[in-house]
Amino acid sequence: MEWLRANPGLFLGAVGDHLLLSLTGLAIGIALALPLGIALAHRPRLAEASIMLAGALRTIPSLAVLAALLPLLGVGFTPSVIALALLALPPVLVNTVIGIRTADRAALEAARGLGMTGLQRALRVELPLAAPLIFSGLRVAAVQVVSAAALATFIGGGGLGDLVTQGLALLDTGRMLVGAIAIALLALATEAALGMLERHLATRVRGA
Amino acid sequence: MIEIDGLSKRWPGADRASVDGISLTVPEGTSCALIGPSGSGKTTLLRMVNRLVEPSAGTIRIGGEDARAMDATRLRRRIGYVIQDVGLFPHWDVAANIATVPSLLGWDHARIKARVEEVLTLVGLDPGRFAARRPHELSGGERQRVGVARALAGDPPVLLMDEPFGAVDPVQRGRLQEEVLRLLQQLRKTVLLVTHDVAEAVRLGDAVALLRDGRLVQHAAAAEILARPADAFAAEFLGADRMLLRLALFPLSALPRHAAPAPGPALPDGATLRDALARMLETGTTSAGLPGSGSVTLADLLAFAGRG
Ligand SMILES: Nc1ncnc2c1ncn2[C@@H]1O[C@H](COP(=O)(O)OP(=O)(O)OP(=O)(O)O)[C@@H](O)[C@H]1O
Ligand SMILES: [Mg+2]
């Protein structure tokens, strides 16, 4: 705590970097997962294959993903963001596919039968009906990304992980603890906030 | 007008065609009811008309235009579609559901709002009470009415209805049939309607088409198919009481009017020959009183039914 009082600027900078890393990674992951999920949902074979592949991908530890990207992309912010986007992709993708495939079939049929184009169906019917599941995938992805962003420090991506590694290197327990606790709190807060939003959304879409 | 010619659909991997060389014309402003056992291809046939299913062979012309040459989404906006399981959008209220096609057609806000109220009233739902409700706040019968209203909203010249009253009790069903019948007569749409229920088919369809294993067994005017089923299968499917169903298609004016009064109360306005027969059975007499005065007789009724 003393370290925090002495270095508020450093701390806030690290938090800012951490959030920037996480949000950028998450945003890119979602931006890829949603259209991919919509496209896959209408191709049963590919959909199943993608769900299995995504499941396998999720078992790879975050650190391994970062390490694997190191020789490919080098170090710094960009490779970190790419690694985080890769982590965010599977849960959102899988839930988008499942959300659309388990959505009210009659409503999907109606959307087609009434003359909506593919894009109109996706935006007006498929995504809204799949929204509760997509959102829970998003929550899982967000928590995972916020936690994994702590590892970005190993490939020079910055963020709160830096405080931990610096603390370890300098034997500065205060700095290390502040970093570690902040990472944990951030993950918890993400989970709590998105969990609340998710319940709100579920009742709105299903109208139950 | 819907002209179906040599239409077939064979699903990939199936050992026979689900729809097998069907030709069928529904003249402008008339309705045709498709009946047949489960799996006989009724839904598949219907879904080929609005190109939700691509035919394996054959042509469909709608209002003289080849459906397969038209843009599928544009075609569908011109064809009202009531699907087997209603399929209202659960995340939209009733008004938004009904507004689906008008907004796809780019109507302005005021016109859409007015149209939503108009079709809600048309299907017997009070716009003030129902427009803002969500589908889960409706009864099964109300949902089916909204489904019909949604199909009518864009004022399509052609209407496809797949078991529009599948999920309601017999009383509701009768009332809905009554209202749709009135609607069809009023709006002069060209309608292709699927149903399991022979009574519903002859009541709502000017013509009836009977399908079996994807083939057209018989296609004739409702009174005709009931009087002269093409084969044993048709006779059995139409049921032993088909002559009774047939009587319900004719008004009292189909029989000569006798001046002599009949015992018991007079039949109501709009009564059918079936009502007249029921009245005779009820009173144990051979005549039934007409609205106003006069009567019809059992002998005339039997002669009429026998003429076919
Ligand atoms: N998408 C599809 N893929 C493969 N086969 C299908 C598909 N849709 C329908 N079939 C098959 O086509 C046949 C006709 O089905 P269809 O749904 O047209 O019957 P139906 O007369 O509407 O039956 P019901 O009265 O039970 O609704 C059935 O054997 C069915 O299994
Ligand atoms: Mg069917």
Ordered list of secondary-structure elements with their pairings:
The complex is a heterodimer of chains A (208) and B (308).
Chain A: H1 2-6, H2 8-41, H3 44-58, H4 62-73, H5 77-101, H6 105-113, H7 118-148, H8 160-170, H9 173-206
Chain B: E1 2-9, E2 19-26, E3 31-35, H1 42-49, E4 57-62, E5 65-66, H2 72-77, E6 79-82, H3 94-98, H4 100-104, H5 109-122, H6 127-130, H7 140-152, E7 158-162, H8 170-187, E8 190-194, H9 198-204, E9 207-212, E10 215-221, H10 222-227, H11 232-238, H12 242-247, H13 273-283, E11 287-289, E12 295-297, H14 298-307
Parallel strand pairs in B: 3-8, 3-9, 6-7, 7-8
Antiparallel strand pairs in B: 1-2, 1-4, 4-5, 9-10, 11-12
Bound molecules: adenosine-5'-triphosphate and magnesium ion (MG).
Give an overview in words.
Chain A: InterPro entries: ABC_transp_perm/SBD, MetI-like, MetI-like_sf. Chain A: It is a multi-pass membrane protein. Chain A: It is found in: Cell membrane. Chain A: Its main location: membrane. Chain A: Keywords: Membrane, Transmembrane, Transmembrane helix, Transport. The complex is a heterodimer of chains A (208) and B (308). Chain A is mostly helical. Chain A has one domain: MetI-like (MetI-like fold, Orthogonal Bundle), CATH 1.10.3720. Chain A is built from nine helices and no strands. Chain A has helices spanning 2-6, 8-41, 44-58, 62-73, 77-101, 105-113, 118-148, 160-170, 173-206. The N and C termini of chain A lie far apart (47 Å). Chain B has 308 residues and is of the alpha/beta class. Chain B folds into three domains: 1-78 and 157-171 and 182-241, Rossmann fold, CATH 3.40.50; 92-155; 250-307, no CATH class. Chain B is built from 14 helices and twelve strands. In chain B, strands 6-7-8-3-9-10 form a six-stranded mixed β-sheet, with helices on both faces. Chain B has a four-stranded antiparallel β-sheet with strand order 2-1-4-5, covered by helices on one side. In chain B, α5 (109-122) crosses α7 (140-152). The chains are: A mainly alpha (208), B alpha/beta (308). At the A-B interface, α6, α7 and α9 of A face α2 and α4 of B. Magnesium ion binds at residues 42-43, 84, 162, 194 of chain B.
